[in-house]
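Example S7 (structure tokens).
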């Protein structure tokens, strides 16, 4: 059995909507919540030099979003990003793994493909290894 992360159902819709707005580019954002349950997604601007293949949230935007979390009394729980619609799998790429700097963060990877078996997948990325997590969906 895979380790699990808990998320509210509405988060899936928010992430899919964000990813499908520009399915040919990677979208990104921050995941937050309380007591280990993801309750809110904060979209961020992808400032990567090549947003078709990569994502990057500007450091100043991360600081702004983390301040917003504190104001709302939410905990930072992780990041999300999408892979473009033509990619077969929404799993961490070698680059995603190499750039994962927050070892405690959960990483949700979204595919904008409308008929994907698992349009949102969760991973823990530590020490150069990605481990898929079960997502327990709560109302």
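Recovered sequence:
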């Amino acid at each position: 059995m895979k380790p699990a992360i808990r998320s509210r159902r509405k988060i899936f819709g928010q992430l899919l909507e964000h990813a499908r707005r520009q399915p040919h580019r990677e979208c990104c954002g921050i995941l937050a919540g309380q007591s280990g349950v993801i309750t809110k997604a904060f979209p961020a601007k992808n400032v990567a030099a090549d947003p078709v293949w990569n994502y990057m949230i500007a450091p100043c935007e991360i600081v702004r979003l983390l301040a917003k979390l504190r104001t709302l009394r939410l905990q930072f729980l992780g990041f999300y990003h999408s892979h473009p619609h033509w990619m077969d799998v929404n799993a961490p790429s070698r680059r995603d793994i190499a750039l994962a700097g927050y070892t405690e963060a959960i990483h949700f990877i979204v595919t904008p493909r409308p008929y994907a078996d698992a349009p949102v997948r969760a991973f823990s990325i530590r020490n150069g290894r990605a481990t898929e997590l079960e997502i327990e969906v709560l109302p």
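Notes on this example. The first strand starts at residue 4 and ends at 8.
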